[in-house]
Amino acid sequence: MNKPVTAPNAAEAAAPQDAKTGEAAKMNMIQAINSAMDVMLGRDPDVLVFGEDVGYFGGVFRATEGLQKKHGLNRCFDTPIAEAGLIGTAIGMAAYGLRPCVEIQFADYIYPGFDQIVSEAARLRYRSAGDFWCPLTIRSPYGGGIFGGQTHSQSPEALFTHIAGVKTVIPSTPYDAKGLLIAAIEDDDPVVIFEPKRLYNGPFNGDPETPVTPWQKIEGNDVPVGHYTVPLGKARIARPGAEVTVLAYGTMVHVAVAAAEAVGVDAEVVDLRTLAPVDIETIAASVRKTGRCVIVHEATRTSGFGAELSALVQEACFYHLESPIERVTGWDTPYPHAFEWEYFPGQKRVGAALKRVMEA
Amino acid sequence: MKTLKNSRALSLHIPEPRFRPGETPDFSSLAISEAGATPRPAVDTQPKDMRELAYGLVRVLNKAGEAVGPWNPNLDPEVLKRGLRTMMLTRVYDDRMYRAQRQGKTSFYMKCTGEEAVSIAQAMVLNHDDMCFPTYRQQGILIARGYPMVQMMDQVYSNSRDPMKGRQLPVMYSSKADGFFTISGNLGTQFTQAVGWAMASALKGDDRIASGYIGDGSTAEGDFHHALTFASVYRAPVILNIVNNQWAISSFQGIAGGEEAPFASRAIGYNLPSLRVDGNDFLAVYAATQWAAERARSDLGATVIEHFTYRAEGHSTSDDPTRYRPAEEAKLWPLGDPIERLKGHLIQLGVWSDDEQQALHAELVEQVRVAGKEAEAHGTLHDGDRPSVKTMFEDVYKDMDWRLVRQRQELGI
């Protein structure tokens, strides 16, 4: 039986060991996220962090561990279990001039706050013609691969990319998680950051039998302890390649890289990092070069973000395409507990799609 | 196996208002406290020691027009006259914009007729920089705070000078400089935002407070309960106003639960102090707001106020209330009209007369007419100048990204 690698209450993550001594440190993704909030709480008195269980306890994934003790009760505190309430109050605070960074414990729990995000946070600037605006950051763990069942595994990112006025961000490495989160907190518009919880402790190649290598043991994954940003709206090339472009984000970036190696296709894996506004230049440049495109996400297929990506690629690169665009996604069912690996678009399915587009 | 039996057949209660079109309203059974009868607790009273106020009715003006009892704020006649003038100005403004909509100059309008005291008495108590989170029926706040009427009209007309650049439905004003939060057509969302703004003020050691408004109908939204939860938990310096005007479009307040218990009593479970107030009594609203504001400014947290009033006109220009309630209900409403009652009080004090009232009305009609002409010169919805269409793509984000740049090009501007 496959075991969940990152349990919802995993407590192994701790604060960066050498945050005060070195320029860069070995951090897993949770520690990098913690460091981003720590840095911003220290730099900007208008930043505050709150959510369910985030205060004294430090969050169910430990992302806010130690922040209350270090920065005080006023800067990091618990809220009632009311996502609409905590997002609504955060919007009021943002309108006042603060920069709240709130945690929604699981992306699956964000829906009660949806109206406040869609109708309020996203529109304050527009509807008031710039009189009010909403520098709000909402962080939330998302995605599968942890045996979380249908209420702890969802990937609702497409819902947010559909909202004018909200930015949607998904990191895939500790470095990006910290840099993107700081950029989000400093951004003057509302940003929703979905954190791939399957990647909190280490990268995941899509094979549940492979033991997780902690981020700290992976070369080239040092995270600066101080302030830096990764700009919103810019993708990165996770694996350069010539034969096919894979568009992915979050956990699927690592699965796609592993799948390309496994089937021996020289894929260029583009890690989108920001879904809205998406980096069309990087996407178009890659697809024009390779002439082929596979889109990979965990979320359900119908009206998923892959549909938007497919349309964008077709609009920008139609005459460069040598094969149909493929989508490898979660199935159009709720996320089933016992069928984690049949549901999750693992290496096998991604590899098969890569081969199909090469043979087309 | 034993089967439990019902002692009577189950039935579903679907609330209905007492009077429908064609029937004659009779409000004689409505429990209304005598003016002056409700005690005024000290501002630092524990909520548990003043629960009866959520079931009572704070009233100051009696039938003779006298200000009586412990809630009498003992206002200078000049303050009373300013209140009267502002309420009358708001009503004259509403009447003109309502007609403008009927003349096709805009798409939609919402009057606050009968509810002027709620927003105006409160705005006169609060500081200019206390942040109000209104619904669409508190235009009186902006008028009381001296926001230019021409600009309000520019917004209603979505014309070339519209401060909202043609993006918002009429009456959805915004003015941060005047402590008036951008209005949302979504009901209830502003209530939690008001609490959040107040929490921010407290976090920063600021001296400003917030005031949120919600209708009787929207108290059924989750936002209402979230607002009370957060206000209670964090002792936020906020006034949480429930404007119970009896009607949510066509649904009477019983559909929102008002038959079972007064809306004000919902505060009790949150251990928030709660005042139920005659919302058509300028002095009662003024005094209740003073009490709640002083409590907030003493760092004692939030107060809930239910303003018991009556929506004398339709919900909006898209509504015909005679289809669901007797046409004469407003005239028979036992708590009268806030303008008539304050006028009666000023006359009773010997500082005002019917002639002065008529002269003031004529002056305000002329003032609004002049403002109307000026605004119409800036354009109306379907006629004259509009905001630049180019601005349609601005302010979605602070900086326009490639998607909006391309879409603007696609539109050809």
Structural notes for this entry:
The complex is a heterodimer of chains A (360) and B (413). Chain A is an alpha/beta fold. Chain A is built from 12 helices and 14 strands. Chain A has helices spanning 29-43, 67-71, 83-96, 114-121, 124-127, 157-161, 174-186, 251-263, 280-290, 305-317, 340-343, 347-359; strands at 24-26, 47-51, 76-78, 99-103, 137-142, 167-169, 191-196, 222-224, 236-239, 244-248, 267-271, 274-276, 293-300, 326-330. In chain A, the strands form 3 sheets. Chain A has a 7-stranded mixed sheet, with helices on both faces. Chain A has a 5-stranded mixed sheet with strand order 9-11-10-13-14, with helices on both faces. Chain A has a two-stranded antiparallel ribbon with strand order 1-8. In chain A, helix 7 (174-186) links the parallel strand 6 and strand 7 (191-196). Chain A starts with 23 loop residues before the first strand and ends with a helix. The mean pLDDT of chain B is 97. Chain B is built from 11 helices and 7 strands. The longest helix of chain B has 26 residues, at 77-102. With 413 residues, chain B is of the alpha/beta class. In chain B, strand 6 (274-278), helix 7 (282-297) and strand 7 form a beta-alpha-beta unit. Chain B is 35% helix and 8% strand. A 5-stranded parallel sheet of chain B has the order 1-2-3-7-6, with helices on both faces. The chains are: A alpha/beta (360), B alpha/beta (413). At the A-B interface, helix 3, helix 4 and helix 5 of A face helix 5 and helix 6 of B.
